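check this one:
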Amino acid sequence: MNPHRTLRILSTLALAGASWIAQASDLTVAYQTTVDPAKVAQIDGDYEAATKASIDWRKFDNGADVITAVASGDVQIGYLGSSPLAAAATRKLPIETFLIATQIGAGEALVVRDAIKTPQDLEGKKVAVPFVSTGHYSLLAALKHWNIDPAKVQIINLAPPAIIAAWKRGDIDATYVWDPALGVAKESGKVLITSGELAKVGAPTFDAWIVRKDFASKHPDVVRAFAQVTLEAYADYRKDPQAWLANQDNVAKLAKLSGAKPSDIPVLLQGNVYPLAADQASALGTPTTQALTDTATFLKQQGKVEAVLPDYSPYVSAQYLPH
């Protein structure tokens, strides 16, 4: 072969490789302060190693802000709850759910002041929650379950950091939220109901990883590698939860990224379900599309979305699960 042609080919390949690397490294991931085993992999750099990308991790306080960032193109992969996900899909944003991160249990809860003895005592009280979050969905579902008119409760839209400040000042009587705000409220309040308990009465919530469709179509291997790291972290935890928690390094890393107190982490982890690879394939189908339909229906009843799509399957995909 002509040596000059060989050099041109190698140069072209090098440029193509450099282009791919540049595109892949332009990866911004939105995460939240939820408690899950994969945060250890996040701190350890496992995602960067597997995706061969330089990842800009950005912390967000709620799913609504994640959706705004993903919609603008600033974020390619994001972590959010089923309620903001349903709202985003209903708006027909170009996203796909590629992994169920958490089936929420004790990780989100309604915490009230000691003066509130029964659910009916919530009437007339100030309850803070980030609007269109899974906490918001769960709060409204709990009120419906207790036959309490939401109009009789002062529901206030606050982000988790603002909830912490409001709780400490005594400005609010209750909050439906996740850590670290959940832990702060629990220090002087009591849990009235958890998302796990609400799931048992027909109002399940979950967290998910989503990806922009344009990024996923260009870099399916990056998305697949991201999913694999997450699932390996889940498998490591679920293989022996007690041994995992006995490793103080794991607990310290999780506490650092979530903001939860190390002493709270065992309860928060064990209260949620982290689906393994075998569970994901079936979950990323009818169960998730039906859950999004049910959530969107509820949001429409509450005036949070204008319509419910006839089909949410275009926003859910199992194609990025590890082979």
Q: What stands out?
A: Residues 1-24 have pLDDT under 50 and may be disordered.
